[in-house]
Amino acid sequence: MPDSPRPAPLPYRQVAVSDTLRFNTPGRVPFSVEFMPPRDDEAELRLFTAAEAFHDLGVSFVSVTYGAGGSTRERTLRVARRLATKPLTTLVHTTLVEHTVPELIHMVRAYASLGLTNLLALRGDPPGDPTGQWVQTPGGLRYASELIELVTAMPEGRFFDIGIASFPEGHYRAKDLQQDTEITLRKLRAGAQYSITQMFFDVDHYLRLRDRLAAADPTEGAKPIIPGLMPITSLRSVRKQMELAGAQLPADIERELLSAAGGDERANRDRIREVGIGITTRMAERLIAEGAPDLHFMTMNNVRATQEVLHNLGMAPAWGEEYGHDMVR
Ligand SMILES: Cc1cc2nc3c(=O)[nH]c(=O)nc-3n(C[C@H](O)[C@H](O)[C@H](O)COP(=O)(O)OP(=O)(O)OC[C@H]3O[C@@H](n4cnc5c(N)ncnc54)[C@H](O)[C@@H]3O)c2cc1C
Q1: How far is CA 181 from the centre of its chain?
Q2: Residue 80: partners with Cβ closer than 8 Å, 6 or more residues away
Q3: Structural domains of the chain sorted by starting position, each given as residue range(s) with its CATH number in brackets
Q4: How many CA atoms lie within 13 A of 223 on its CB side?
Q5: Using an 8 Å Cβ cutoff, are 151 and 163 in contact?
Q6: Alpha carbon of 161 to ligand 1 centroid (Å)
Q7: Sequence-separated (6 or more) residues with CB below 8 Å from residue 327
Q8: How confident is the model over 157-170, as a mean pLDDT?
């Protein structure tokens, strides 16, 4: 068998994300954060400051999303590479959108050569309109499970620790929850070690997903399911995110936020934010009590909101001037 190329050593060896879920200090729940590639160089610098602050708080891993379009994509790789030198366990999201198979192979080799061996294998949504018709790129792949098969079949594949997306309310394109369960299991059987969920606001949905997967396949279904949490800071943004995710904002949460808004969302922005952070904290507390393996904060690059939830959980100091920047867009 020919020698497989080794990833170039980073100054710090990358821990596999699935290992961060296994070896944690008793009593302490790991947390991780998701960043989007920042828009410009200045925002990129602020992101590194924020990432360092999360490092000091003991973040288990940092993930970087993958968008559509060349320069954003290059930024994902650049940001991920730099985060990984911090040292931060860095997870790169990768999608099939507008990529041929040779391009995907090239990209995976590039990650390996940079020492970035944590990959979130995703299909991605149609660019422009996420809910629009999915069109497979000619010469590309159709499903995230095929990307996992591609990576694990590559010589570099054995260095990778692969995660996937899972959907507490079912993926909006799936026929039903049974099909959604089968597809999630297919990705786990193909070699994924864990999943990160779509954001949700009803913890029962997360628990039902966990039960469904474990009942359908006790081995694969027992792999860690990391809950994705988006701290609520405004009604507008939470509604928009739920719409993009094809999911529902539970009526009681909407009522709680509307009551904080008191009929005037603009005038009561601070109160809505306060109540929103409280709701996210409550969800996190319940998830911790239910044994979630990690809390994954989808920060939307809003660092302060995440820090406030962590503070409420006793996992971070209160937000202070010296901490950094609240938005790193
Ligand atoms: C934690 C997380 C991070 C994300 N990060 C990003 C990101 O960085 N960039 C981005 O663009 N998007 C991101 N997304 C969004 C994601 O790409 C979309 O939700 C996408 O619609 C589904 O991706 P998937 O990997 O789950 O696809 P898949 O698992 O391939 O599923 C896609 C659809 O196809 C169906 N399907 C899958 N396999 C089969 C099969 N064999 N036969 C029939 N039907 C099948 C599924 O039911 C589903 O409806 C993220 C989502 C999550 C939850």
Answers
A1: 19
A2: 64, 90, 92, 116
A3: 17-231+294-314 (3.20.20.220)
A4: 27
A5: no
A6: 18
A7: 46, 301, 302, 303, 304
A8: 96
Counted residue by residue, the chain has a size of 329
Q: Which atom of ligand 1 is nearest to the CA of 164?
A: 25
Q: What are the residues facing 161 on neighbouring strands? A: 118
- Is the CB of residue 17 less than 8 Å from the CB of residue 91? yes
Distance CA 275, CA 252 (A): 13
Helices (H) and strands (E) in the chain, counts: 11, 9
Q: Are strands 118-121 and 225-226 parallel, antiparallel or unpaired?
A: unpaired
Q: Whose CA is nearest to atom 33 of ligand 1?
A: 173
* Residues 89, 258: Cα–Cα separation, whole Å: 38
Q: Is 231 helix (H, G, I), strand (E, B) or coil?
A: coil
> Is there a catalytic annotation at residue 34?
yes
Strands (E), 152-223: 161-166, 194-197
The secondary structure of 95-143 as a DSSP string is --TT--HHHHHHHHHHHHHHT--EEEE-----SS-TTS---PPTTS-SS
What element of type H or E holds 298?
Answer: strand 295-298
* Residue with CA closest to ligand 1 atom 47: 174
Q: What is the pLDDT of residues 217-264, one digit of tens each?
A: 999 999 999 999 999 999 988 988 888 877 778 999 999 999 999 989
Strand partners of residue 283: none
- What is the best residue among 62, 77, 91, 171 to mutate for testing ligand 1's pocket, by most ligand atoms within 8 Å of CB? 171
The stretch 125-137 carries a mean pLDDT of 87
Cα dihedral sign, 96-99-104-108: negative
**Ligand 1 centroid vs 187 CA: distance in angstroms?**
10
Average of pLDDT values for 85-95? 92
Residue with tokens 């602020």: 46
Instruction: Enumerate the β-bridge partners of residue 92.
Output: 64, 119
Structure token digits, residue 257: 């936020």
